[in-house]
Design a protein that fits this description.
heterodimer; A: alpha/beta; Glutaconate Coenzyme A-transferase; ten-stranded mixed sheet; two-stranded antiparallel sheet; 7 helices; 14 strands; B: about 280 residues; alpha/beta; three-stranded antiparallel sheet; 9 helices; globular
Chain lengths: ~230, ~280
């Protein structure tokens, strides 16, 4: 029994990669948790941009949607959606973009569109949303995704966004980074094993020679994390 | 422009087979207008919307749509849209044609429509499988030679948005997260704006935008008309409803029963809210 959950470990690892002043494009869920954690710990000047148009949002509770009113009330600026994508994302003003997906391949390409054939889908997923242009418009893409054979696949059913700018994939087992053009396991979270990571990957997973162990979440990190409550979740 | 009842605006301005855009990016979603389209039994609509969340799940599940033009079709923070998925995966209640874009592409298409240009241009749609499945073309910049994506402009027959308020002349004021509402109204041949209230004078609000009465065809009073979305300064997002919708919409029968009780069984937004309140009291 560990003293933290897999989601907490993922949020902590993502948050550690954000620096004071990093401008990050945030989605709902783990990325929002990670970015808000960074802002409350080591990176108070981390700038949170939500695609609904809020720039520099400072929510006190985690939003359930990217367009919650509190994001607008606490933002430095609120812009329209065309302006957000044209001036701010395409304009090259975002450092880090977080992406999730249903599937990822060894090159960091992502699928959030469909499982099965596009014309006769087994599961119709929500679709790309902001992802296709986030994937090419930001400086660095961070992916957060639980590791399993269903998600880490040898071939995507559909390529929603390309992996050229994926710098890190944070999973519930460890950390993957591109090494020689392919995602390799570079760190394991405390208590996780290499064979676990291999079993949860649909391609032959390369393991870095200097495999590290992720630092355990600190008391301060866990405390800050747990003080963040999702709006409407009590 | 005149302040008219919503039922009259929908009757006069929205026809079967029209291309209709209901916009509002998580905020100010025109649910009351969506419900009125369902009550009046509109059919064969091409529905445009960046995030076809609950409002289009309802329209699609009630058989109003022939085609969906969109970029992200989920229940924000919750999961799937079950009625949208049922239509795409099983053709229920009817086949639904998809034209799928990215958010950036949709935003550029609306902005182009508002500017009376034939297409929007962006650095996007690169690499992935989407270009082969949608209406996008590559154009070359005449100055630099850079290859860019071109998306056809959105020019809806009818654009529908919700706003905080209007004055009695029909000038509309909205603030908070503004999404693509202004672009939707300006890109559309006809437009309907539902508002929380009509006031004597539009007092300035920081960051607010005003749509002058002469770009709007109908202003309709619909208090609570964005529910379960929100109207900044009036009421909060009903997050519990978004969570509850997952269960309400999961099965066809349960969905139909809910729509019959709260939408088809009511005549306007006020009755809709009373109907929801009665259900809450019983629970």
């Amino acid at each position: 029994m560990s003293e933290w959950t897999a989601d907490e470990m993922m949020a902590v690892e993502a948050s550690r990669r954000l620096r004071d002043g990093t401008v990050c494009f945030v989605g709902i869920g783990l990325p929002s948790l990670a970015a808000n954690l960074a802002r409350r710990t080591h990176a108070p000047g981390c700038v949170l941009v939500y695609e609904s148009g809020t720039i520099g949002a400072k929510p006190t509770e985690l939003p359930l949607s990217i367009g919650d009113g509190e994001l607008a009330e606490t933002a430095d600026s609120v812009v329209s959606v065309p302006e957000m994508f044209a001036y701010w994302l395409q304009g090259g003003r975002i450092d880090v973009g977080f992406l999730g997906a249903a599937q990822i391949d060894r090159h960091g390409n992502l699928n959030s569109t469909v499982i099965g054939p596009y014309d006769a889908p087994k599961v119709r997923l929500p679709g790309g949303g902001g992802a296709p242009e986030i994937a090419i418009g930001v400086r660095d893409v961070f992916v957060m995704l639980r590791q399993s054979r269903r998600a880490f696949v040898s071939a995507l059913d559909f390529t929603t966004s390309v992996g050229d700018k994926v710098r890190v994939v944070i999973t519930d087992i460890g950390i993957l980074e591109p090494v020689d053009g392919e995602l390799a396991l570079v760190a394991l979270h405390p208590g996780c094993r290499v064979d676990e990571a291999r079993e949860a990957t649909g391609w032959e997973l390369h393991v870095a020679d200097d495999l590290r162990e992720s630092d355990r979440p600190t008391e301060a990190e866990l405390q800050a994390l747990r003080s963040l409550r999702t709006k409407g979740a009590g | 422009m005149a302040v008219v009842p919503l039922c009259c605006a929908v009757r006069d301005l929205v026809h079967d087979g029209d291309v209709v855009a209901l916009e509002g990016f998580t905020h100010l979603i025109p649910h009351a207008a969506g419900h009125e389209l369902i009550r009046q039994g509109r059919r064969d609509l091409t529905l445009i919307r960046m995030t076809p969340d609950l409002v289009y799940d309802q329209l699609i599940g009630m058989g109003c749509a022939r085609k969906l033009v969109f970029s992200w079709g989920g229940n924000p923070g919750v999961g799937s849209l079950h009625r949208l998925r049922d239509a795409v995966e099983h053709g229920w209640p009817a086949q639904l044609e998809l034209e799928e874009h990215s958010h950036a592409g949709m935003a550029a298409a609306y902005a182009a429509g508002a500017a009376n240009l034939p297409f929007g241009v962006l650095r996007g749609y690169r690499g992935g499988d989407l270009p082969a499945r949608t209406r996008v073309a590559t154009i070359t910049c005449p100055f630099t030679g850079e290859a860019l994506a071109a998306v056809p402009a959105h020019r809806p027959d009818v654009g529908i948005v919700h706003a905080q308020r209007a004055d009695s002349d029909g000038n509309v004021q909205l603030w908070g997260i503004l999404g693509v509402q202004k672009e939707t109204v300006l890109a559309s041949a006809r437009s309907i704006v539902t508002v929380e209230e009509v006031v004597d004078e539009l007092t300035p609000v920081p960051g607010a935008t005003v749509l002058p009465s002469w770009v709007v065809d109908a202003v309709c009073v619909a208090p609570g008309g964005a529910h379960p979305s929100y109207a900044h300064g009036y009421y909060d997002r009903d997050n519990d409803f978004y969570v509850a919708w997952d269960e309400i919409s999961r099965e066809r029968e349960g969905f139909r029963a809910w729509m019959e009780r709260h939408v088809l069984g009511t005549t306007d937004v006020t009755e809709y809210h009373a109907s929801l309140a009665r259900t809450r009291e019983r629970a």
